């Protein structure tokens, strides 16, 4: 099954990220440094998880927000022999650090000639693949702090992943 989604990603280091999905439906994935929020307006539901506990705190989240380096999440990085999007791009394979093998089998990072991330492919058990494509980079633009804060709209149900997993309710 293939599901295509598109939108805009904003990153402000360290640890802040906002993904505004536009297609096929509006969604918001926001990391405020402490919590990851996933909001689906059509469902009137938001999922909240402490960043350290979130399933989304794997490769893309940790690396894109500057919370980790390749050396921390990969036990080995090597050139990947895969098809690249454009001539001159380079693909690197990341094999998971010890203890992360349950989270992913490998991640492939494709970077362009200017070292900008073009594509990220995360392969998981069960032949599950999640692929991100990046383009139209704009760097060093001023981003307001408010862009990385989430206030659930009135009437929105908040699902706390920590409580569901039997952990303490994060405040």
Q: How much helicity do the residues have?
A: under 10%
User: What structural category characterises the helix and strand content?
Assistant: mainly beta
H-E order: EEEEEHHEEEEEEH
What's the CATH C level? Mainly Beta
Overall number of structural domains: 1
Might you state the CATH topology name? outer membrane lipoprotein receptor (LolB), chain A
The total beta strand count reads 11
Terminal Cα span: 37 Å
Rg, please? 17 Å
Main beta sheet strand tally, sense and closure:
6 strands, mixed
List low-confidence stretches: none
Shape: globular
What share of the residues does DSSP label as strand, in percent?
A: 35-45%
CATH architecture: Clam
Q: How would you characterize the overall build of this protein?
A:
With 171 residues, this protein is mostly beta strands. The protein has a single domain, classed as Lipoprotein localisation LolA/LolB/LppX (outer membrane lipoprotein receptor (LolB), chain A, Clam). It is 8% helix and 41% strand. It is built from 3 helices and 11 strands, in the order E-E-E-E-E-H-H-E-E-E-E-E-E-H. It has helices spanning 59-64, 70-73, 161-164, and strands spanning 6-12, 16-23, 27-32, 35-40, 45-50, 74-79, 90-96, 106-111, 117-124, 128-133, 157-160. The strands form 2 sheets. It has a 6-stranded mixed β-sheet. The protein is globular, with a radius of gyration of 17 Å. It starts with 5 loop residues before the first strand and ends in a 7-residue tail after the last helix. The model has no long low-confidence stretch (mean pLDDT 84).
